């Protein structure tokens, strides 16, 4: 392992402790461990990715950062029933959604969650599987994996997330002749349809039930309720 790369074991321990096998989060537990979360975020803040890092090392860093800072954003406003409720609470000029709050500091620069997702991960790495691993604290998101992403396991982890997401009927209900897909496949069509691939390619790569050009496709409503353990 590159000695310059951030150690994600602190985040890994928190995920093991406070996220179940369904990807649901014990936010009350995270609240009790908030000092440990902030210690990890401080590590991220002081150690931004370097060009000397491999692509997978950089991707793992930014994916973990997105997910960890999202948890911190929820904790900052907890209790909430949805991340979208935070947008109605904030009173910051020109900031309309929780994804536009510049509460993240990395390497002396201020970021919001949109900067990480759209400005870095989508723009720089050209891998639509990021949509299987970024979790915006909503029920319809992919499950929050209860382990940190690391460069040595990243490709396998992303593929596992793809299989989990596509074969969960609450997120993608696929039957012979018809499919009710996640809105992520609709919102990010331009990502899925790059490099000669398509939505059907990505669905068929991971789903147990395949689709073809005759499959009737609809998109599910997105459930923005908090991904919290009950």
TrEMBL record:
InterPro entries, per database record: DUF547 (IPR006869)
Domain DUF547 per the UniProt entry, residue ranges: 51-166
Top-level taxon: Bacteria
Protein's name in the database: DUF547 domain-containing protein
Species of provenance: Nibrella viscosa
């Amino acid at each position: 392992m590159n000695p310059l790369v951030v150690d994600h074991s602190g985040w890994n321990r928190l995920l093991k402790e406070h996220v179940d096998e369904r990807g649901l989060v014990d936010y009350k537990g995270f609240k009790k461990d908030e000092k440990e979360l902030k210690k990890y975020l401080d590590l991220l803040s002081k150690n931004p990715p370097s060009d000397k890092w491999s692509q997978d090392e950089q991707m793992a860093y930014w994916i973990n950062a997105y997910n960890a800072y999202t948890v911190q954003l929820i904790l900052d406003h907890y209790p909430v029933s949805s991340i979208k409720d935070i947008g109605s609470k904030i009173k910051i000029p020109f900031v309309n959604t929780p994804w536009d709050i510049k509460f993240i500091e990395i390497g002396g620069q201020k970021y919001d969650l949109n900067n990480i997702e759209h400005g870095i991960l989508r723009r720089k790495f050209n891998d639509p599987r990021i949509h299987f691993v970024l979790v915006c604290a909503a029920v319809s998101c992919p499950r929050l994996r209860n382990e940190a992403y690391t460069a040595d396991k990243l490709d396998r982890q992303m593929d596992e997330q793809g299989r989990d997401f596509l074969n969960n009927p609450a997120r993608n209900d696929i039957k012979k002749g018809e499919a009710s897909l996640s809105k992520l496949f609709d919102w990010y069509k331009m990502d899925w349809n790059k490099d000669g691939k398509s939505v059907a390619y990505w669905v068929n790569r991971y789903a147990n039930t395949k689709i073809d050009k005759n499959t009737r496709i609809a998109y599910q409503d997105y459930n923005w309720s908090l991904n919290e353990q009950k």
